[in-house]
Design brief:
single chain; about 70% helix; about 190 residues; 7 helices; elongated; mainly alpha
């Protein structure tokens, strides 16, 4: 069973990694970058301040903790525990991959990019849910695009992305629920 799942994982990796063109390579490097998204992060903080006003500092702290927890879970617990080589560091796969910029770390399960971007996106979806706002849903698309860029670049298997995304969703939900509980207690007092 695991061998079959591993083969499917590799097949999907090779499909997306094989789509490369010089232009798409540059676009995916841009998408996967951290600093290009700073204006989006500033906009998110502004929207949270606008919506939550006096409680905005609490929601921003909860969001930061959700992202930090997802990042630490991926980087300090999962990667050292599972020790699954990234495709770009797997000597058997390297000759078959188009690698533009190899990832820094040796291990890739689970993807920190997927965990962190999905933690951010889902937290915002939850924060703006009662108004059925459009604000969070483009962020889910963004998180999926950033995650896909990691497979395209050959630095993660699709399963690294899937479980990273699930982890980010869990941490977003957990810290959102914590925020709701704190705010509900403050309004009761």
């Amino acid at each position: 069973m695991m061998a079959c799942l591993n083969q499917i994982d590799k097949a999907i990796l090779f499909f997306f990694n094989g789509l490369h063109t010089p232009l798409l390579d540059q676009v995916m490097l841009l998408i996967t970058g951290k600093f290009i998204w700073i204006p989006v992060y500033v906009l998110i903080v502004g929207l949270l301040i606008w919506k939550f006003k006096k409680s905005s500092w609490l929601v921003i702290i909860a969001l930061v903790f959700a992202i930090a927890a997802s990042d630490q879970f991926a980087s300090t617990i999962c990667k050292p525990t599972f020790k699954r080589l990234r495709p770009c560091h797997n000597e058997l796969l390297k000759p078959e991959l188009h690698i533009i910029n190899p990832a820094g770390g040796k291990y890739g399960f689970i993807s920190s990019h997927a965990a962190n971007t999905f933690a951010l996106a889902i937290f915002i979806v939850l924060a703006f849910k009662e108004k059925r706002s459009w604000i969070g849903y483009p962020l889910v698309f963004w998180a999926a695009l950033v995650s896909l860029s990691r497979v395209y670049l050959g630095v993660h298997y699709p399963s690294d992305i899937f479980f990273g995304a699930m982890s980010g969703i869990f941490w977003a939900w957990l810290f959102w629920k914590g925020f709701e509980k704190i705010v509900s207690r403050r309004t009761v007092l």
